[in-house]
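Need tokens for this chain, all 108 residues.
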Amino acid sequence: MFRIARNVAIDASRRRRDAIPLEDVSLDRLPVEKRSPETEFLRAERATELADLVRALPEAQRDAIALRYSAGLTAREISPVIGKSEAATQKLLTRALAALKEAYDGQA
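Here are the structure tokens for all 108 residues:
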């Protein structure tokens, strides 16, 4: 019983991670009149850095990320495409995103 409570507590703490609002990350949401050559350059530079980091991922993670964010598929929809269970696909996505975050933070 103690182990179950411990695991539930760990899961809850993982869900409470600090999140960065998308508006703070994406410069595409700026109104056209507020975009400057500098913000456009920064946006393009960030996109290039992110693309390079995605290319550096292992093939399975790269494919899962592409299907999730380019095609907009859910883990349930991706799982038959890559031949894994839904849970394994979700874990693959989680690990890929963690790897991307670590690599992106390491560049700063």
